[in-house]
Amino acid sequence: MNRPIKKIVLPVAGLGTRFLPATKAIPKEMLPVLDKPLIQYAVEEAVEAGIEEIILVTGRNKQVMEDHFDHAYELENILQEKGKGAAFDVARSMLQEEGRIVYVRQMRPLGLGHAIWCARHLVNGHPFAVALPDDLIKGKPGALKQMVNSYNELGGNMVATMDVAREDTSKYGVITPGSRDGKRIEVKGLVEKPHPADAPSTSAVVGRYILQPEVMDILSDTKAGAGGEIQLTDAMAKLIGKQPFHALEFEGRRFDCGSKLGWLQANLAMAAEDPHMAAGVKAMISSFK
Ligand code: UTP
């Protein structure tokens, strides 16, 4: 029996330089897509996947995220007094069972691998999921649930992948694929941001992972890689051959909300599916020259 995935690490300590100046005083993960911040989409996806403990690795300006997942009594009282029941419900819709969300600080932004390592004592020897909230995935069920379902059969480690254009491989971690079973692909190798000419495939890793706790020991010894950061990809690559390692081609649409264009696409795609906004947004788009 594979040990169940009950914990997730959400790294939210990056600098978000591509979104400055918006991210100067607020974290990137608090940027909204329509009316909901990115971090809330990630927490909801995790809860849908049956995850019970949500570990946020925060950095500067963490307080606003803690506040987002807590009561706002003044707002709640005013909405109640004014009889605004629907708004009251929305204002509380992100509240989780007390103790479910925990926070740890990454004191220096040394990269994604380092951020995950900062959660090692909270992960405490259990297999765990990771989601990057700026990779917004619209899927039914959500990408994490799809992965947990596959993990329950396969065990080991897993990354979510999608096919990308060859010229884009240098933006992603890319797998060397082994045998395939439907949407599940055995991972034989992993390389971070390869030049298109050197990329072992066009199967790119997006921000959803299931990892065995041994990755924390590897991260302890991992030196800075591409971009001077401690790369999660380098640590994961060392697990290949020692533990089962699969990629899951998730079903759904992924938006890179860490980039302005991806964030805009996410907003437009969500608006186009919202019954109250669809007509307006489609008319707006067709009016563009
Ligand atoms: P990104 O690669 O998008 O980096 O991080 P970034 O710093 O957030 O954004 P840019 O590139 O400067 O615009 C991917 C994920 O890893 C987290 C980020 O918060 C994001 O969720 N991260 C990255 C950390 O938590 N710590 C780090 O040191 C780096």
TrEMBL record:
Per the UniProt record, one Pfam family is NTP_transferase
EC number, UniProt record: 2.7.7.9
Please indicate which superkingdom the organism of origin belongs to: Bacteria
Q: Which GO terms label this protein's molecular function in UniProt?
A: UTP:glucose-1-phosphate uridylyltransferase activity
Q: What are the TM regions of this chain, as residue ranges?
A: none
Entry's PANTHER family? UTP--GLUCOSE-1-PHOSPHATE URIDYLYLTRANSFERASE
Q: Which family does it belong to?
A: Belongs to the UDPGP type 2 family.
Protein name per UniProt:
UTP--glucose-1-phosphate uridylyltransferase
What is the organism field in this record?
Answer: Kordiimonas lipolytica
State which gene encodes it.
galU
